[in-house]
């Protein structure tokens, strides 16, 4: 007796294969690099929708002229020659994708024939694509072809497939250059602004107007250059895909494809880091079985740091695998960890030293300020209570060339009225005058100012931190 779960999935695959509306497309094909016209990609999608996914070999796909009219929208009387031209060009087109599970590099179709009597074209897929078109167990996406054939832009079709593939996650992201490569743009749209305007925004606008799924996106920059695009998948409430009688079978397939590996926090954490570079859940699960989580994260961080430092890494996931398997790399990580620890200790020490110096400088500043205020208050007290002190200050201000400018400024301010009160008031108005008065009084009353108990206490405090207030 067969396994009920296996039978259920097999029956679902058979039902989808027999549906004229559903197609099953492997994710490596969805994310592969190819440069097709809108008509060619619609032919490809129609061919995939005709595949019997339960078989172990690819059959020749037969498409009538009437079908061509329907799927391509060509209504010209010269439809035969137009189809021939498209298929001739299609023969030259290749598909390429290097991913953690393997490599695709082949032409898409191997050849075609036309039967005049029947009005039908017979087209053969490249046999190399067999593993990616038949007997799919995991890593595939089920798409309703009606959602694709109504789209006019090749970019809208490709982005719809990206949205459908990541619909469960609600988001997907691409490095700008990687996305341009996948879309087969080559050297076209060298300026990002042109790429955004003519490719991304065109696809976004058409999907929003004509599709059940569309996207919004955010730009991530490195300096002034946009290097990464993060797309958020949106559901269009105004448009829905028509239902048919195999929705339950479609659901079973989607459920089976997506649950090949149970979700866990560790897989999700690593997937967020390297999922955009082609790492699958299956691969990450293998990593976690073979290596500690921290080693995987450190290896990924090392690869990203090298890329940021200018190293050209064409296959990020492949490089991560290479390093994980390299026993010598463990020593490199250990040495790096030692260097980082030493660097952290060095920075910590420098930070503490800087904080100590800043604290010391602040203490010095505050202590000097405190002593200055003490001296000024003591001098004000002498000016108020000791007439000899006042007379001595006035005589020094009048006769000294060093203080002449400050004294003239004082007399101008008080209209030549010289008094102890005015001198005290002007201390807070003119810093130069303030300094002159302190210097004059200190020269004659040093003992009274600097030998008090308060002054001595401040001087002792200053000595503790290595400064002299006198």
UniProtKB/TrEMBL annotation:
The keyword Coiled coil is assigned to this record: yes
Keywords: Coiled coil
Domain Initiator Rep protein WH1: 23-164
Gene3D superfamilies: Winged helix-like DNA-binding domain superfamily/Winged helix DNA-binding domain
Segments forming a coiled coil: 330-358
InterPro entries: Initiator_Rep_WH1 (IPR000525), WH-like_DNA-bd_sf (IPR036388), WH_DNA-bd_sf (IPR036390)
Similarity annotation: Belongs to the initiator RepB protein family.
Protein name per Swiss-Prot or TrEMBL: Replication initiation protein
């Amino acid at each position: 007796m067969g396994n009920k779960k296996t039978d259920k999935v097999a029956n679902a695959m058979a039902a989808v294969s027999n549906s004229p509306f559903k197609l099953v497309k492997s994710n490596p094909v969805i994310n592969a690099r190819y440069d097709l016209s809108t008509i060619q990609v619609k032919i490809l999608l129609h061919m995939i929708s005709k595949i019997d996914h339960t078989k172990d070999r690819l059959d020749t796909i037969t498409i009538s002229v009437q079908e061509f009219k329907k799927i391509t929208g060509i209504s010209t009387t010269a439809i035969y020659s137009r189809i021939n031209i498209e298929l001739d060009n299609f023969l030259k087109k290749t598909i390429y994708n290097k991913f953690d599970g393997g490599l695709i590099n082949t032409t898409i179709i191997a050849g075609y024939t036309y039967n005049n009597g029947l009005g039908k074209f017979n087209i053969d897929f490249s046999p190399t694509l067999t593993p990616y078109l038949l007997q799919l167990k995991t890593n595939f996406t089920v798409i309703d072809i009606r959602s694709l054939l109504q789209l006019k832009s090749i970019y809208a079709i490709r982005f719809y497939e990206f949205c459908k593939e990541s619909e469960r996650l609600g988001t997907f992201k691409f490095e700008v250059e990687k996305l341009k490569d996948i879309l087969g743009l080559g050297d076209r749209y060298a300026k990002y602004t042109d790429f955004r305007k003519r490719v991304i925004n065109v696809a976004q606008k058409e999907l929003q107007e004509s599709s059940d799924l569309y996207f919004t996106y955010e730009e991530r920059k490195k300096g002034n250059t946009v290097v990464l695009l993060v797309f958020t998948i949106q559901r269009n409430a105004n448009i829905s895909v028509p239902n048919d009688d195999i929705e339950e079978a479609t659901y079973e397939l989607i459920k089976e494809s997506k649950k090949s590996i149970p979700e866990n926090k560790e897989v999700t954490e690593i997937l967020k880091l390297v999922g955009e570079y082609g790492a699958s859940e299956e691969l990450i699960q293998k990593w976690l079985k073979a290596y500690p989580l921290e080693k995987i994260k450190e290896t990924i961080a090392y690869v990203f740091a090298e890329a940021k430092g200018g190293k050209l890494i064409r296959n990020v996931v492949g490089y991560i695998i290479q390093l994980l398997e390299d026993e010598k790399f463990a020593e490199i990580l250990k040495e790096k960890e030692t260097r980082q620890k030493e660097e952290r200790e060095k920075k910590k020490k420098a930070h503490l030293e800087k904080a100590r110096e800043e604290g010391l400088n602040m203490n010095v500043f505050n202590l000097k300020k405190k002593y200055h205020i003490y001296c000024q208050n003591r001098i004000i007290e002498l000016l108020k209570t000791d007439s000899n002190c006042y007379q001595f200050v006035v005589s020094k201000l009048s006769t000294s060339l060093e203080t002449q400018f400050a004294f003239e400024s004082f007399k101008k301010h008080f209209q030549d009225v010289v008094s102890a009160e005015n001198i005290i008031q002007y201390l807070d108005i003119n810093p130069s005058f303030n300094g002159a008065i302190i210097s004059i009084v200190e020269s004659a009353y040093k003992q009274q100012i600097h030998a008090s108990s308060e002054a001595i206490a401040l001087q002792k405090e200053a000595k503790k931190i290595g400064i002299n207030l006198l």
